[in-house]
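Why does residue order matter? Because the sequence determines the fold. Keep that principle in mind as you read this record.
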Amino acid sequence: MSSSTIVEAVRAAGYPDETPLAVGVSTGREEALVFAQGDGLDGVSFGAETVAYAASLAKQFTGACAALLARRGGLDPHAPIAEWMPELPRWRESVRVQHLIHHTAGLPDVWPQMQESGESNWTSHGVLAALAETPHLRSEPGSAYVYTNVGYIVLATIIERIARSSFSEFAKKQLFEPLGLESSLFWTGPSAAPPTAGVVPEPASPAALSAGDGGLWTTVSDLLRWNCSILDDALGITSKMHTPGTLDDGTPLDYAWGVRVFRASGQTVQSHGGHYANATAKLVRLPEHSASFAGLAIDGSVERMVALGSLLQASLIQ
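Structure:
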């Protein structure tokens, strides 16, 4: 892998020269390669240290927090969520923590209900309030995979209640500080972006101010450190994080603890993306090559980020 390979992939993916974008590639054998272009706030160049919104990459960090608690015996993935979520309707007895982790809980989309109650932003409090007034699930827990943000908000809330700490503080103390992710944080408002943000996504409705499913602000440098730490099993949870779930009937899934795990060209790929408004993100690890890459862009095209990820993945696997 060379810097020119990254630039070629960025161009082949279709990114215009002016799009704010940072991409970092690490092979574990030498210093990471980073390509960046475009400007953030006040004309400051967008780069590897620019704090930007990572959207659903947050789920991987939420999964890691849950895995840490499970390793320490504080969280049983097989336990019903009723143990920690007594305010939810009776279906709380049939939804287990593992259903939340693997997107098989059957939780409904509550945004229409939130709007009816006067909510204008997507917040953890609003989601939980709507769930508390939801008498029925979308499907029987464990019967179907349906990717949802709601489940990871509930999961983050359970983590808070076990830890007796805000989710953002727990992630800071258990993930960000130990691993040296100095620019990373979970932000839930009241403003749309933290003071450290180097770029702010276009205003969107609803504003994304929840934690667990999203809320993550970070840099490409921090994401590369995260990848290296997970590949090195610095937290002792790498195996658990990358154990895919199943439906209750045993049907295998590719979704593990906030990260997809699958095979491509005979190699294991650990991957997740993120998208909200005009912010897109991608995080991929190739454990058999001790290689990884991370990308953050102020660009609403999921297709471009997916294409970029596929091109870099192919280059690293060769």
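The mean pLDDT is 94.
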